What does this fold into?
Amino acid sequence: MAKTKEKYEEGAVPFVPVHIMKEMVAAFIFLGILIPLAILYPFEEPEPANPFVTPEHIKPEWYFLVAYQILKIVPSKALGLVLQGIAILAIILLPFLDTNPERNPRKRPLFSIIAIISILAYIILTIWGKYS
Amino acid sequence: MELIKDINKKVLDWLDERYDARQWIRENLTEKWVHKHINWLYCFGGLSFLGFLIQIGTGIFLMMYYIPTPKDALASVQHIANNVPFGWLFQRLHSISANVVNLLVMFHMLRVLYHGAYKKPREFQWVSGVFLLLITMAMSFSGYLLPWTQLSYWGAIIGTEMPGATPFIGEWLLQLIRGGAQITGITLTRFYAIHVVVLPLTLIVFLGLHFWMIKKVGISGPM
It folds into this structure.
């Protein structure tokens, strides 16, 4: 069932063509960035896998640096894993933990502070993991 | 011009008679209303989806040349990058856009967080979205091993040690993921099957749910 225009008090725009046009422009900008990147970072001849030689500095891809760094700084591996499990569970359950109907971030300071601290922690752990 | 209009009308009439095409177009496209305030920040979800489509397209191409054995994996990737026409482009796009998709999904998540768009009645849009991020990361991890380079081999060792440290079931989990105690050809085919079949299918199911809920509930309104 499509939403009727009357459902929105402040006016509405049709998905096609108004919003889809934005998406298309964004898509072309995305492709316009991606293809030059593919040319600027060419395929480098990699070192073949050697199970007998452990490389000295092995770092995961950037999106796993957080997990990597947490496991490094928490003394017990099991504890580090449990902490990450709790963090992921909290993110999954966020809509059930934060049930305040207010959506403006300025009018829900507690949430905003926790969110900003979490995002900063994520960025700091990533950079730390990169250079540690 | 007249001729095109005429053909257009005939095609639509034909489809209308059978599938109510015009009504479908109205309900889902031209008279599908969204809030006036939605801006560029709302494009990250669509871009993540585009990234996923690029991954599928380039991935199918790579599958046609890739050989999932420790002996041939790297050679086949090198063959794609060096000899296959436009192989370098598909290989680079697949590997770079994997990184970019992770970033786009996170941006999309931050947008939803900022707008409080995960709140009632959109709780499960958020839950399915977090699963989509986790699947995206699992895709990245499983794909990383496939070229069988020194980096990917040792990356997989360290990465699989993580679930291996889980209390009680760690040892069993490690064996299950690696298909044995070590990372071998069995691990490679295992990761390959997960990367090209299991995870994409799971992702499509979650994407379907995600999109269906967005259509049902609508995009969140102004704050």
In short: The beta strands of chain A are 12-14. Residues 62-131 of chain A form a domain with the Helix Hairpins fold (CATH 1.10.287.980). Chain A has a mean pLDDT of 90. Chain A touches chain B through 71 residues (CB under 8 Å).
